Amino acid sequence: MKTKPPSPQELQQLAEAGLKPESLPAHIAIIMDGNGRWARQRGLPRIEGHARGAHSVRTVVEECCRLGIQQLTLYCLSSENWKRPRTELDFLMTLLERYLIEERREILDQNIRFTTIGRRSGLPTNVLHEIDENIRLSQDNTGMCLCLAINYGGRTELIDAVRDVARQVRDGTLTPEAIDEAVISNALYTAGMPDPDLLIRTAGEMRISNFLLWQISYAELWVTERCWPDFDRDTLHQALRDYARRERRFGGILTED
């Protein structure tokens, strides 16, 4: 995705947040954790935490668009989450379907290009229909890419990528010696997407939780104690300011070192 110069309005918005265009990550990935904990702390059922978390999704999507972030990837449902109670899973699917429908107008108005990663098998037909509709309607948009990781697992993704590469070798279109990082990257669900620069995790957990295992090799990690339903614009700005102070060496050293 090509980077366009920020508009005067975007520059003003960045200045208000204490940020500079050149210090922003191109791609932010977020592990949205703590919905259930947030609800439990308030004596509410877990589903109320998920419902409140949907408001945080909208806030973060709007703010990332406003700041000119190129891509935002949100970890919505892991391949391990199917172990949860059936009633909670049914609610999550209903909430997801409702989000896809209710936010469609916003996606189009904000010039967002919508996409998803993860296995489609196991997802309800009605949810898949709304996913495909949002992808279809937004495919020509040129603004931020919003990627939802749904029924996603990093190890599952690598298994599917290895199978794809193995088929290419079997069919004679690829030799084992030609397999390199680019071949693997192009076989992943995220083919064509930039790797995340910043990985945010909420609720204070110090785990990757099987999320984008290949892609976050050099991502900066930022963890907040705040549960996802409490994640707001100010928290995002704090993460971005902290990111701007990091020195990204990618395995190298600075000249003065």
Look at the structure and give the mean pLDDT: 93
Approximately how much beta-strand content do the residues carry? 5-15%
Cα-based radius of gyration, to the nearest Å: 19 Å
Uncertain regions: pLDDT < 50 for 5+ in a row? none
Quick gist of this model?
The protein has about 260 residues and is of the alpha/beta class. It has helices spanning about 10-15, 35-40, 45-65, 85-100, 105-110, 125-140, 155-170, 180-185, 235-245; strands at about 25-30, 70-80, 115, 145-150, 200, 220-225.
Write the layout of secondary structure elements.
Blueprint: H1 8-16, E1 27-31, H2 35-41, H3 46-67, E2 71-78, H4 86-102, H5 104-109, E3 113-117, H6 125-138, E4 145-152, H7 154-170, H8 181-187, E5 198-201, E6 220-223, H9 233-244
Parallel strand pairs: 1-2, 1-5, 2-4, 3-4, 5-6
Helix pairs in contact: 2-3, 3-4, 4-6, 7-8
